[in-house]
Amino acid sequence: MKKRMKFLLQYRRYRLPFRAAVRTAHGVWAEREGLMVRLEDEKGAVGFGEAAPIPWFGTETVDEAEAVLRELGSEVSEEQMAAVPEKVGCLKHALAVARAEFQVREANNKTEHLGVAALLPAGRAALGLVAGKAELGFRMFKWKVGVADAGDELAMLDDLCAALPDGAKLRLDANGAWDRRTAERWLARCTERPVEFVEQPCFGTRGADDVLRGLAEDFPTPLALDESLVGEQDIERWLGAGWRGVFVVKHVLLADPPAALARLAAAKATVVFSSALETALGARTALRAAFAWPGERRALGFGVWPLFQDARFDGPATGPFLYAQDVERINPEALWNALS
User: Fold this and answer.
1) In 3D, which of 157, 176, 187 has the Cα closest to residue 248?
2) Domain harbouring 36, CATH code
């Protein structure tokens, strides 16, 4: 009878303040909470993963993920990890990523690079940052909207577009803040302006899916799903609905990332890999997936660093490009030890 492989399981909870609070339509986000997990096999090999839930997206809370870890105990089998319920998908992700670290993986030592979108703050503060980021070479910019009065933000749109360098594009991220009428005003204004797509104009209200599909049909500016993609079931639902817009993938929210990404690739979906404001540990896995993506390469939504007051938890410094070799330099054990 084949012996069941057992792993020593440890976890550490973190609460990391941001250098500057992040303002979105969901409110002010001042710190990141999550969990790092560590697995060690019988030969002493080690793997790490990160559970970084976002409850207002519809994930589990950190408390719920931690409760499952306590139930698992300090020694787990592959069968026990596989049986972790989908309702704690972020924890399933962390355990799966840690387990995958035991498999032989060919290091990516190429100088391959991907473009990065520069994240602009909400409101008029964005205008003062465009020129400096343009001088650094950024040609894709992301602006958080749906934070202030829609009329005031609409009045700023033309000023922001005028400040963009030649050939640059703008992504607008509403975080689901708008009703249909407000979204229609914005999409009408975006026509013939350098807007690559509008991310998640509506979310959370009854019939929001139908509204998104209707807006996508009625206006030429592409729409992107973000909050609408909590996990694999949402990806399957939107593919089944024939969604032709963008899928913004936050890798840490996927319980089974390889299966989800394979499904998107098979459907030839347009995918943008985006930060969930996780630590460098979670970003490492997400960025590895981005570099391995077989489809069209869109600018990464990882222009978020420096992010944390404790810079040890930031990912690689991002200019207009991010290099695969810098991703491979991220040291999971050093991040784990930084929480001790």
Assistant:
1) 176
2) 3.30.390.10
Q: Of 2, 142, 250, 268, which residue is the catalytic one? A: 250
Q: How many CB atoms lie within 10 A of CB 29?
A: 14
Domain count, the chain: 2
- In DSSP terms, 223 is beta-bridged to 198
Alpha-carbon distance 331 to 271, whole Å? 27
Place of tokens 């509204």: 211
User: What does the pLDDT look like over 217-261, one tens digit per residue?
Assistant: 999 999 999 999 998 999 999 999 999 999 999 999 999 999 999
Beta bridge partners of 72: none
Strands of 167-230, DSSP E:
169-173, 195-199, 223-225
For residue 35, the surrounding DSSP H or E stretch is strand 27-40
Does the pLDDT of residue 138 top 50, yes or no?
yes
Q: Are 53 and 34 in contact (CB under 8 A)?
A: yes
* pLDDT per position as a tens digit, 162-217: 999 999 999 999 999 999 999 999 999 999 999 999 999 999 877 899 999 999 99
Which comes out higher in pLDDT, residue 313 or 102?
313
Would you say how long the chain is, in residues?
340
> Is 87 an active-site residue?
no
Q: What CATH number is attached to the domain comprising 327?
A: 3.20.20.120
144 is catalytic: yes
145 and 215 assigned to the same domain: yes
107 phi and psi angles, rounded to 5 deg: -65, 145
The residue annotated as part of the active site, out of 6, 144, 169, 268, is 144
pLDDT attached to residue 165: 96
**Count of alpha carbons within 13 angstroms of residue 115, beta-carbon side:** 15
Chain centroid, CA 282 distance in Å: 10
Calpha distance 52→5 (Å, rounded): 27
Token pair 């963009």: residue: 164
